[in-house]
């Protein structure tokens, strides 16, 4: 099973990138799992403005994301909550990809995660973030994950500083891969 | 009362721009109402990536939107539904403005509208679109408006082709201005 | 494949019951599909108040719904939009069933539908209605269906009055059964 | 200013009732504020099934809630999250009241709160809970409040056990009353 993992940020020091990296490390230890850990800078695209797709105009970043998704059996996306909702960067990429047929998210198992320095870890935003994925027919894993107090969550080496977080992510990773296997390929 | 009106698109032929323009015309006929009908190209900003604001870095488009909002008593925003949710362009602008203190949307009455060629006019998307406005403390007018079959809704001169739409927008405009006046200035 | 179908109402003349009945008739014509067309009066339960479940206290209506769900491979639920959101009757049943382990909705494919005399058919409410199903790990079929102008949609015999509605429901039924088959049993 | 306060539960030991009681105590200490602290048992109503209202049929509990709301300038409602969403009991009451004209929630400032023994305090549910209030034109206070670890939050006398909770609720109460005063009466 191949899982595409990325954090929705290109900033150094983003907690969401850090959580993506640490989650990728945990997923890699699972038997039968190959991880494609991407950097979001590979996928960045100009703002989508309701343009129609003529078969050539999809921007390179969106095309790259579409291809990497199509090569993967599933994706784990770690995205910040901004103002109670989805990151514009992520929504922008989703909207570009929705021009393709078939839509690359259709029938794709997706694990949505979030990290924030606050006490709720972005959990409100996850419910807003999932809406376009649901609309496009992705299989959003029901156990979305929000990491609170993210500023204290990682060591300098990018590993989980709190044993309970590592344990939770391991259980989440196992639950998600079981979920992915529950769909006929 | 000064109302900022804009459609969230810079595309020629956008139904949401057309609805913004036609709504601005109706609002202008109301007694005591001044309309600032903006083109979204004035507000376009690069993608927001969780950056911190150091007092100088807000992009010019976001700064322009913040200033125009601060000069207005209320805003009417016409924004497309993409994949069941908010336009990334609009979310992006909202996130940039949320760095300012006070947040320009706080306590601001907002009329949210949408147009689409489909039968539902983008009504699902309006509920997703309002979330960041609610989170930031805007007063979202409860009677959001979705215009279905938008491809048949406008004349070549940009006026409402269907008498019932013009009537609905006039009632909406009157209801919204009454709503705006219900807040202490 | 066995599909449990019900409208969330016990009122005579409910459009949602009518849509459930007409949808059941269409589903029954599909090859390999058995329909369990239930009346919601079988499932009615007292209001759930955060009670804990001691293995005996689940009310008879909730127990009946749980059993019928467990016998089915999937469910089609037709539920009205009230005030932009989920019917309290449906939410009440979902909350009762969520006390069981495993939760009967987990991994169950669900088709959500709505009917209303208005122009939007309850489409806003479907997105609110799906949230607890998503939270409990049901597989909500992405193409939720809203029937507008429901007061003109049915003949006296309870059949679809408009040919395009019958066609849409047939396509929906075929899409949903394909979706159900995409999960490993 | 008169504020109606209630927890959406009739169970002894409900954390949401406890939070309602403790919040009522804090509100009562504010200058110019009168609290009507209700018990939800006064408002309980049979399940709403899309019935039409003939002017006499509204159940007594719903009628009582409507009257108490109409006597109040604002309301603070403390309601549990069940399965990521609104309590059926609360939704049921809202749907009954929506039959009245004018709708008692229209233009009414509402503070939504939640308590749970979990780490997120029901914050996801608050966003689902607010939807029907928004749809009916209530002014939902933007700073909704979720109390995590509610099993450790109260003393035997029903006071806040954690000084920081008491401080937060006091700030919340002050912010909410300022919000209520921002509307013209």
The helicity of chain A comes to 25-40%
Shape of chain A: globular
Chain-averaged pLDDT of chain A: 95
Distance between the termini of chain A: 11 Å
Low-confidence stretches of chain A: none
Please report the total strand number of chain A as a whole number. Answer: 6
Please tell me how large the radius of gyration of chain A is: 16 Å
Strand-residue proportion of chain A: 5-15%
What oligomeric state do the depicted chains represent?
homotetramer
Specify the number of helices of chain A: 5
Largest Cβ-defined interface: A-B, 31 and 30 residues
**What structural category characterises the helix and strand content of chain A?**
alpha/beta
Q: How do the helices and strands follow one another from N- to C-terminus of chain A?
A: EHEHEHEHEEH
Largest sheet of chain A: 6 strands, parallel
Describe the structure.
Chain A is α/β, with parallel strands linked by helices. Chain A is built from 5 helices and 6 strands; from the N terminus they run βαβαβαβαββα. In chain A, strands 1, 2, 3, 4, 5 and 6 form a 6-stranded parallel beta sheet that branches. In chain A, strand 3 (74-78), helix 3 and strand 4 form a beta-alpha-beta unit. The longest helix of chain A is centred in the last third of the chain and has 19 residues, at 163-181. The first copy, chain A, is globular. The model of chain A has no long low-confidence stretch (mean pLDDT 95). Chains in contact: A-B, A-C, A-D, B-C, B-D, C-D. Chains A and B meet through helix 3 and helix 4 of A and helix 3 and helix 4 of B.
């Amino acid at each position: 099973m191949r899982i595409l993992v990325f954090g929705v940020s290109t900033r150094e020091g983003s907690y969401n990138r850090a959580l993506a990296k640490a989650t990728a490390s945990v997923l890699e230890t699972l038997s039968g799992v190959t991880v494609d850990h991407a950097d979001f800078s590979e996928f960045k695209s100009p703002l989508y403005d309701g343009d129609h797709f003529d078969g050539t105009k999809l921007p390179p970043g969106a095309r790259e994301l579409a291809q990497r998704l199509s090569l993967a059996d599933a994706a784990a996306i770690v995205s910040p909550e901004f103002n109670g909702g989805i990151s514009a960067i992520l929504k922008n990429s989703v909207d570009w990809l929705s021009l393709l047929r078939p839509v690359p998210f259709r029938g794709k198992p997706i694990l949505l995660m979030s990290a924030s320095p606050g006490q709720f870890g972005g959990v409100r935003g996850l419910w807003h973030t999932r809406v376009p994925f649901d609309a496009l027919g992705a299989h959003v894993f029901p156990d979305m994950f929000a990491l609170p107090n993210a500023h204290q969550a990682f060591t300098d080496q990018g590993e989980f500083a709190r044993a309970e977080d590592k344990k939770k992510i391991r259980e989440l990773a196992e639950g998600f891969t079981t979920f992915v296997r529950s769909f006929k390929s």
